[in-house]
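ok so for the tutorial part 2 we go from a plain amino acid sequence to predicted structure tokens. step 1 is just haveing the sequence, like this:
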Amino acid sequence: MMNSPPALPAGFTSRPLRESDHLPVIAAVGEWWGTPQAPELGLLLPRLFFQHFTVLSEVVEVTNEGSGPHLAAFLIAFHSATHPDRVYIHFVGVDPQWRGRGIAAGLYERLFSAARGIGCTRVDAITSPANRGSQAFHEALGFTTHGDQQIEGVTAYADYDGPGHARVALMRTLD
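step 2 — the prediction. this is what the tokens look like for a chain of 175 residues:
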């Protein structure tokens, strides 16, 4: 019997990603990563993800007393058209003030459940060799890391996303 995904902390709710989340997510990621004017955010999170890849994507909001909901986290993922047994996680973010509360783990567990529900047996993602926090988080959730050489002390693929853009491939088999 599968366990149900962890509940969100009190005051947090989740919902499917919507096209209207595009600009708020880009603004939040810039703030959360300390790069508010970084033009590459628009390239990493183009509107098409908010239009065409919402079935497995999710937003978590928090409601503070006296104000409406505010973006606390998001996950953008999609069912692979090339590999129908796989789901690919494109981008995940959690507001730094809410990290460590199980929100990201909950997003992933709900995605794993949805992926199983559509017959998928594997989830893939990537991260940078320098992002040791992401690597540790994914490994704690059962992901294995893959690459073809040692880069910055970890196994990664050189030039994965173009010249000079190495990535660590992450893979988790679903039970």
